[in-house]
Amino acid sequence: MAKPFKFRYVNEITGTFVLLVVFALVVGVIVAGHAQRWFEPVYRVNLVFPQEGSLGLQIGSEVQILGATVGSVEEIAVEDNGTMTGVITIRGSFFRFAREDSTAIAKKKFGIAGDAYVDITKGTNAPLPKSDATMTVTKDTELMETIQQVVDQLREAVLPTIEQARKAVEEYTKVAVSLHDPQGNLQQLLAHINQLAEGLQKGEGTVGQILRDPEMARQIQDMTKKLNQSLDDVQKILKDVQDTTKQLPAMAETVGGEVSDLPGIVLQTQETMRETTRLIDAIQKHWLIKKYVDQTDPTTRIPPSHVEPLSGGAP
C-alpha cells in the first residue's frame, strides 16, 4: 500500500536540512579559523637571554615585527649552566622578515614603563631556518639613548642656571664683605654719621648750640619774624612804586605840573630803601649771621642835599 503524500518526502527533507546545518558549521569553522589564524603556519624560534635574565619578558609577552603583533613568548626556561632560554612563535606571513641579521630586542611598551615585549628588526640577509632557528635577546639601546638625551637636555637647562646662581652668590658675598669692611664706603659713612650725631648731642657747632640752647633758638625765631616783616614792607613799597610808575603816562598827559612832585616821591622811596638797608645791615652784624656774610667796603651814600630837582619842576 502506498504511503500518504504528506509523509512521502520527510526523509529527504530531513537529510537536506541536516546537510545544510553541517555545511553551515563547516563554513563557520573555516571563517573562524581564518579569523583566528588557525590555518596559518606558525614557526617557532629559540631565544637566548643575556646574563641579566629575561629582561622583563614573561610567557605570553607579545612578539612584534614592523610594529605588528606576530606572535608571543611560549616558553621561558633555565638551562643547567644557568643560561635562560625561551621559545617564541612567529606567524608564517611575517616569518620572512626574520633573517640572520635580525635582532630580538626586549622593549617596554611606554619606553621606560609598561609590559615588556620582543621587537624583531627586519633583516636583509638570508632567511632564518624554519626549524631550530635561534636568536639572542639584547637590551633596548633606544631606551638608553632616550635617557641620555633627557640627561643631556637637563644638563643644558640646569647648568646655566647653576652657573648664574653661583655668580649671584659670589656677587652677594663680595657685597657682604664690602659692607662689613671697616674701610668700606658704608662703614665710613656710618662712622661720619655717628660722629655728627655725637657732635650735635654735645652741642658742638652752630647747629648743636641751637639744638641745645632754647634762648638762641628763640632769638633766631624772632629775628626771622622781623626779617619776614621787613621783606613784606619792601614788597609793599615796590608794589606802590610799580603802581605809581603805571600811572605816570596818564599823569604826564593830564597834569604836567604834577611832575614836579616826583622828586619828593623819589626822596621818600630812597629814605625807605635806606631804612631797609640799615635794617639789613643790622641783621648782617648779628653774631649768628655775621660769619656767613662776606664783609665788603661800605658804599658811600649821596646826601639828600645833593639831590637836584628834575628840570622843569618846582625849586
Structure overview:
The N and C termini lie far apart (190 Å). It is elongated and about 165 Å long. Among the domains are: 42-142; 214-294 and 302-306. It has a seven-stranded mixed barrel. The chain has helices spanning 10-35, 92-95, 141-180, 185-202, 205-212, 214-254, 262-284, 287-290; strands at 42-48, 62-65, 68-78, 84-91, 104-108, 116-120, 133-138. Helix 4 packs across helix 5 (205-212), helix 5 packs across helix 6 and helix 6 packs antiparallel against helix 7 (262-284). It contains eight helices and seven strands; from the N terminus they run H-E-E-E-E-H-E-E-E-H-H-H-H-H-H. The chain is an alpha/beta fold. A hairpin with a 2-residue loop joins strand 2 and strand 3 (68-78).
Quick overview of this protein structure:
This protein is of the alpha/beta class. The protein has 8 helices and 7 strands; from the N terminus they run H-E-E-E-E-H-E-E-E-H-H-H-H-H-H. The chain has a 7-stranded mixed beta barrel.
